[in-house]
């Protein structure tokens, strides 16, 4: 067992490890790619019973890739393993471990005695561990380098990069506008007078962000962290 300080580990239990090219871990990686609805921190999981994959799922309620979602946990920069209640996509019921159990249930399969393989994360939270143990899962496997491969900062380096190119700004006072301009320059986003990929509007209460179809995607309060939080919103788009 690797000497890693996990945020949570149930008494009397521990993770097991396999290489990333293990056949069942490859299946978990495929589930991550095809099923995960969380584009920021995608995770896939499979259940293996009697040498066969019986269920596969991804986190983010299996919505699949390409979903537009702004996570409040990322916006507010909350510590890892906390604040799940802030985000419906990242709340524990949507974690890959819970989703794969739900998928087994949907298929009418008994997961008792199965092993779970997790690709995309390096530990399991308490609600997920509890669900796995109550379902009779024998062991939970991650890759032997998961604590490095899927460390949050490393994953975010790959996923927290805006796909948008232009931002339009309306109603900003001069002081906040200057700060936002600097931030947009750092993100290499162009300010477009009209018709930007995202429209940010300063109101009396905060900043509202809209997509091109006029869909309100996020609202920020006017605090001393508003520019940093706006940056975290745009990095997810």
UniProtKB/TrEMBL annotation:
According to the UniProt entry, its GO molecular function terms are:
catalytic activity
**Protein name (record):** CMP/dCMP-type deaminase domain-containing protein
Superkingdom of this protein's organism: Bacteria
List residues of the CMP/dCMP-type deaminase domain.
19-153
Taxonomic lineage from the root: Bacteria, Candidatus Uhriibacteriota
What InterPro entries does the annotation carry? CMP_dCMP_dom, Cytidine_deaminase-like
Q: Which SUPFAM superfamilies match?
A: Cytidine deaminase-like (SSF53927)
